[in-house]
């Protein structure tokens, strides 16, 4: 298979000695590759497992650091969002290892695909190396920069954007307009004073709203520099 050596080198770089490299190849095989290689297992079922594994791992880390509910659900939603997982995938260079069918190469820029690939790769680690190794991988490549002591005061992007608007304007009506996309995910457009300030994508409307608010915060900051 064309990326066998690249995957082996990648695993070496992140200090994983595979018991079976085939599970990692599967995790990095898009279904479009099956058009010309129908017998090649693709990532979809691994993505299903990886989604649950990541949620459990992060829930456990938050539980160990918080010991109270507070904003823990919001923090977990942020850490497991399409945006966060896609960024981790991009930073690792995983997306460049994905096997795609002819004509599908432009989807490498799709955040939903990047998030799915990160999830499927995590499932491969779980099945090949066990949960301890997956936990170490996530700590290094997903939430290494999270200061959990600081995050005990965590506020979600929607709340932060609302507070910034209220600080200097009496017009604090913020509208979130949601659209369901063909792949089952959602896009949300954030409007304030008839101007679109943010766009976000997610597996749920709530996740997409958080992403739109985070996008709006960055635009709002640049407009008010």
Automatic annotation (TrEMBL):
<dbReference type="InterPro" id="IPR011907">
    <property type="entry name" value="RNase_III"/>
</dbReference>
<dbReference type="GO" id="GO:0046872">
    <property type="term" value="F:metal ion binding"/>
</dbReference>
<dbReference type="InterPro" id="IPR036389">
    <property type="entry name" value="RNase_III_sf"/>
</dbReference>
<keyword id="KW-0698">rRNA processing</keyword>
<dbReference type="GO" id="GO:0006397">
    <property type="term" value="P:mRNA processing"/>
</dbReference>
<feature type="active site">
    <location>
        <position position="51"/>
    </location>
</feature>
<dbReference type="GO" id="GO:0008033">
    <property type="term" value="P:tRNA processing"/>
</dbReference>
<keyword id="KW-0540">Nuclease</keyword>
<keyword id="KW-0255">Endonuclease</keyword>
<comment type="function">
    <text>Digests double-stranded RNA. Involved in the processing of primary rRNA transcript to yield the immediate precursors to the large and small rRNAs (23S and 16S). Processes some mRNAs, and tRNAs when they are encoded in the rRNA operon. Processes pre-crRNA and tracrRNA of type II CRISPR loci if present in the organism.</text>
</comment>
<keyword id="KW-0479">Metal-binding</keyword>
<feature type="binding site">
    <location>
        <position position="119"/>
    </location>
    <ligand>
        <name>Mg(2+)</name>
    </ligand>
</feature>
<feature type="binding site">
    <location>
        <position position="116"/>
    </location>
    <ligand>
        <name>Mg(2+)</name>
    </ligand>
</feature>
<dbReference type="GO" id="GO:0005737">
    <property type="term" value="C:cytoplasm"/>
</dbReference>
<feature type="domain" description="RNase III">
    <location>
        <begin position="7"/>
        <end position="130"/>
    </location>
</feature>
<dbReference type="InterPro" id="IPR000999">
    <property type="entry name" value="RNase_III_dom"/>
</dbReference>
<comment type="similarity">
    <text>Belongs to the ribonuclease III family.</text>
</comment>
<feature type="domain" description="DRBM">
    <location>
        <begin position="156"/>
        <end position="222"/>
    </location>
</feature>
<protein>
    <recommendedName>
        <fullName>Ribonuclease 3</fullName>
        <ecNumber>3.1.26.3</ecNumber>
    </recommendedName>
</protein>
<dbReference type="InterPro" id="IPR014720">
    <property type="entry name" value="dsRBD_dom"/>
</dbReference>
<keyword id="KW-0699">rRNA-binding</keyword>
<keyword id="KW-0507">mRNA processing</keyword>
<dbReference type="GO" id="GO:0010468">
    <property type="term" value="P:regulation of gene expression"/>
</dbReference>
<feature type="active site">
    <location>
        <position position="119"/>
    </location>
</feature>
<keyword id="KW-0694">RNA-binding</keyword>
<keyword id="KW-0819">tRNA processing</keyword>
<dbReference type="Pfam" id="PF14622">
    <property type="entry name" value="Ribonucleas_3_3"/>
</dbReference>
<dbReference type="GO" id="GO:0004525">
    <property type="term" value="F:ribonuclease III activity"/>
</dbReference>
<feature type="binding site">
    <location>
        <position position="47"/>
    </location>
    <ligand>
        <name>Mg(2+)</name>
    </ligand>
</feature>
<keyword id="KW-0378">Hydrolase</keyword>
<comment type="subunit">
    <text>Homodimer.</text>
</comment>
<dbReference type="GO" id="GO:0019843">
    <property type="term" value="F:rRNA binding"/>
</dbReference>
<dbReference type="GO" id="GO:0006364">
    <property type="term" value="P:rRNA processing"/>
</dbReference>
<dbReference type="GO" id="GO:0003725">
    <property type="term" value="F:double-stranded RNA binding"/>
</dbReference>
<dbReference type="Pfam" id="PF00035">
    <property type="entry name" value="dsrm"/>
</dbReference>
<keyword id="KW-0460">Magnesium</keyword>
<keyword id="KW-0963">Cytoplasm</keyword>
